[in-house]
């Protein structure tokens, strides 16, 4: 837990985690680095704490957040896996084309 904040109870930590998940899911326009940074900061974790939790190198996590690296799918799944999320592929629904009216 980031030392700049007062310690949180388990219930408060779970609430922050749930809020972080909901925020990421409700903002599909966010880039992966934005989502990673939001998860970490919302859960009040330092980069070092997040790195330890995910098993991703501290430097790798910094590089991803600062958009110096895109990170592999495996790395992203390790990061998002901490909150029960996983990268996936989804079909984008096309707007049905309507014939031009003459």
Automatic annotation (TrEMBL):
Give the protein name, as stated in the record: Helix-turn-helix transcriptional regulator
Alphabetically list the UniProt keywords: Plasmid
Question: Would the keyword Mitochondrion be found if you checked this record's keyword annotation?
Answer: no
Show which residues constitute the signal peptide.
Answer: none
Q: Which residues form the HTH cro/C1-type domain?
A: 36-79
Q: Which organism is it from?
A: Comamonas antarctica
> What's an example of a GO molecular-function annotation for this chain?
DNA binding
Q: Which CDD domains match?
A: HTH_XRE
- Tell me the SUPFAM superfamilies matching this sequence: lambda repressor-like DNA-binding domains
InterPro entries in alphabetical order: Cro/C1-type_HTH, Lambda_DNA-bd_dom_sf
- Keyword tRNA-binding, does the record have it? no
On the tree of life, the source organism's domain of life is Bacteria
